[in-house]
TrEMBL record:
Taxonomic source organism: Funneliformis geosporum
Keyword Nucleus recorded: yes
The protein, known as: 17558_t:CDS:1
Localization: Nucleus
Domain XPG N-terminal: from-to ranges: 1-86
GO MF, any single term: single-stranded DNA binding
Amino acid sequence: MGVKGLWKLISPVGRNVKLDIWLYQFLTAMRDKEGNGLKNAHLLGFFRRICKLLFYNIKPVFVFDGGAPELKRLTLNERRKRRTGNANNLQKTAEKLLSAQLRLQAIQESKGSCKKIITDDHENKMSNLIPEFFSRRKRDEYDLPSISGGIE
């Protein structure tokens, strides 16, 4: 894994710098007024160091070489498990969405067939029941009156 021939390309002009030394410098040297370490000292230190290198027309190329350290292996394993779990969750979610859409379609179709039955001979009976139903409903205190015309 990686870029083949990268070291041959950058070795004539490049110089190796251990970034862990930079990290240690930033974390130990950058303090607040009370002497406590800054929360993001490593980020601030890297930013300032890179700005200084760019000021002197030095273009840094960061190469992270090597395998993952032992401390990160647990994190990598957790991420791998989470990814496989997410794939399973995705499948379950897709199945739930499909079943919900099918249910919604069935409900809409059943409402359509009910409308046909109602319109045949029960239309008059229903027209009498609808105002009764709305009069029993509690008025919503946030219900706004309809506006005549349009909002422009």
